[in-house]
Design goal:
With 145 residues, the protein is mainly beta. It has a single domain, classed as Immunoglobulin-like. The protein has 1 helix and 8 strands.
């Protein structure tokens, strides 16, 4: 009985002390309400190169975010929907454009080969403490012939 009481007392002390968590991350939107969280990119679509020989590419386009909360975008790619997505490049936000785009080409990246891929995009805002990244777009299936 004493052991159970002691365990409950320790758990209670841990819970009470955890409530006083200090937020020291300068990019934590909860700890710093002045931060603008980048919007989630939407309207992700694509075109691809033809099935013939030559340079292979995937041209991604998406609807622009507001320049108030977005300085650029991370482009991610995966080999399957539930696999890990890896950053393939960064694109700076172009003010005034209704859409943004990125061309993933075999001329610049030897991993752009015929096959099935999943792409997604996230926006970021640059602050003095680094880059604050927003939520990912929905994954987009791309078949490169």
């Amino acid at each position: 009985m004493r052991k159970i009481l002691l365990i409950l007392l320790i758990l209670g002390a841990l819970l009470v002390s955890a409530c006083g968590l200090k937020r020291s991350n300068p990019l934590d939107p909860v700890g710093n309400p002045a931060l603008e969280i980048p919007g989630t990119p939407s309207g992700l679509r694509y075109t691809t190169s033809g099935s013939g020989p030559g340079t292979k590419f995937v041209n991604l386009t998406w609807d622009s975010n507001s320049s108030i909360n977005t300085d650029g975008y991370y482009i991610y790619r995966s080999l399957a929907y539930f696999n890990t997505f890896a950053v393939v490049d960064t694109v700076l936000h172009i003010n005034g454009n209704l859409t943004q785009n990125f061309i993933h080409s075999s001329a610049d990246d030897s991993t752009v080969l015929p096959g099935d891929y999943w792409y997604r995009v996230s926006a970021f805002k640059t602050y003095h403490g680094g880059r604050l990244e927003g939520r990912f777009s929905e994954p987009l299936f791309v078949r490169l012939p």
